[in-house]
Write a structure and sequence with these properties.
151 residues; mainly alpha; Arc Repressor Mutant, subunit A; two-stranded antiparallel sheet; 6 helices; 2 strands; 39% helix; 7% strand
Amino acid sequence: MAVRKSLADSSCPVARALDIVGDRWALLIVRDAFDGVRRFGQFQENLEIARNILTDRLRRLVEAGVLEVIPASDGSAYQEYILTPKGEALFPVIVTLRQWGEANLFRRGEKRSQLLDRTSGKPVPKLTLRGQGGEMLAPADTFVKKVAVRM
């Protein structure tokens, strides 16, 4: 298996983020953590993931500060994984991926899970990007300022 090239030193924030959560298992673990999954066995059962892969992804997410390991809340000898503030900051990413999937990957009327507002019980509105003045931003309304490369 080829060794993955680290993007941790990239000048691109997207590349650095993908270095941590850039594979499906990492994002699905984070998704499950938002859904209240906390124990290794629960992650494994929900994701139907091999133990070695789950162990590796949990380790990476803990090392990156996305998850934290704590003693089990029931006082047993087990440990639990909880989202750190850095991990909780991924919520809009998970919601955006969910909403993109809902809009582009399901046929009309096809059954799917739904993200609801706990207070109202209604679907969470579509996330949008807004400019400093509150106006909606489209890709054409933005640009990336590249960092100058030093030799």
